[in-house]
Specification:
This protein is of the alpha/beta class. The protein contains 12 helices and 16 strands.
């Protein structure tokens, strides 16, 4: 007897999930996709912020793997899920080994795993130090734009910390239309400061580049300030240095003492995430016993729920959300897949029948 199938049976068969292929996306492909697309990546990051602000994401606290035999090092897991047009789950696994710098290799390395929304199977492993740096820089560029509205547009840029993140932030600022008359640079390593200055000059950066002897000099002489250090505790504690009301991108999160934050308008990416792990905002909460010093999130600013006053410093402290990595990683994956150049690993998943 020939079996019959109802329309519902056919639809159920069509909706049966299948195991997706697994691909590896190396750093060279990631870089090719992202290079020169700074405005597009900023749009991706802002869309992720809006989805997160609307509750269309899951972004648990990051998990820190501390290493007793290597006290300056850590490896961090950032799980997340992002809805909307992305509809993707995943995990960034990023290490920070500051001692790498002495060997002239980057401090951070990372991979990003993307999971299929329907089956939960991993669909890709992407080299993610570039994705992480790009989403950090795109977030900073977005904040620079959003937080400088309603005040004179900054023309003097200053960097405290002159590593890879500083380089990416400069690239994203220029790539989204920023021009500066002067660029000041300070790093505790004279070699790093000189190397960053050389990079800026050779990249054709507009504006006079000057290496400064102290963070104070950079801060006082800049109206857009980027902190991109590896500091593990505050080292800037004088609010008077910020008396000219600059926009401060506090990307490295642990440079500013509570006294500085209490004298400023404070914007974060996510309140609960940012006020933990001994960040400067977390230390400020401990000191005051309150979160009232936090005025809102970048999404609040983008949507108009929070207005940033022009008459005081404004500090953006982004903890770095896993949903941003997912959004940029999905953008990269889709672009590589569209090009037909995905490196698919055949038979990566071996046991695909429940009962053999």
């Amino acid at each position: 007897m020939t079996p019959t199938h109802t329309a519902a049976d056919v639809l159920a068969l069509e909706d049966t999930p299948t195991v997706p292929p697994f691909a590896v996306v190396p750093g060279a492909q990631v870089k090719r996709v992202l290079q020169g697309r700074e405005k597009s990546v900023v749009d991706v990051v802002e869309a992720a912020y809006r989805l997160h602000g609307a509750g269309r994401s899951v972004n648990p606290p990051s998990s820190f793997l501390r290493l007793p035999d290597r006290p300056t090092a850590r490896i961090i897991a950032l799980p997340a899920s992002l809805g909307g047009e992305y509809d993707v789950d995943g995990l960034k696994w990023i290490s920070s080994f500051p001692t790498n710098v002495a060997a002239d290799i980057p401090r951070a390395s990372a991979v990003l795993i993307l999971n299929d929304h329907a089956t939960g199977y991993p669909v890709a492993c992407l080299e993610s130090s570039i994705i992480s740096a790009a989403r950090t820089a795109a977030s900073a560029a977005s904040a620079a734009d959003r937080l400088s509205r309603g005040r004179p547009r900054p023309t003097r840029l200053g960097f405290v910390g002159a590593g890879l993140i500083a380089r990416y932030i400069h690239t994203y600022l220029e790539g989204t239309g920023w021009f500066f008359d002067t660029i000041g640079v300070h790093d505790v390593s004279a070699e790093s400061a000189a190397g960053f200055r050389m990079y800026l000059e050779q990249s054709g950066a507009l504006g006079r580049v000057t290496v400064r002897a102290s963070a104070e000099e950079v801060i006082r002489d800049s109206d857009l300030i980027v902190f991109a250090t590896v500091a593990d505790r505050p080292h800037v504690d004088d609010p008077s240095w910020f008396g000219h009301n600059p926009v401060v991108l506090h990307v490295s999160l642990r440079d500013l003492a509570p006294e500085v934050l209490l004298s400023a308008t404070n914007i974060v990416d996510d309140v609960d995430h940012c006020l933990r792990a001994a960040t400067s905002p977390h230390l400020t909460e401990r000191l005051t016993g309150s979160r009232d010093f936090v005025h809102g999130t970048l999404d609040d600013v983008m949507t108009g729920r929070v207005t940033v006053p022009a008459g005081r410093p404004v500090v953006f402290s982004p903890f770095g959300l896993g949903v941003l990595d997912l959004a940029v990683g999905k953008y990269v994956y889709d672009e590589v897949a569209r090009s037909g150049e995905l490196h698919v690993i055949d038979d990566f998943f071996h046991e695909l029948r429940r009962h053999g």
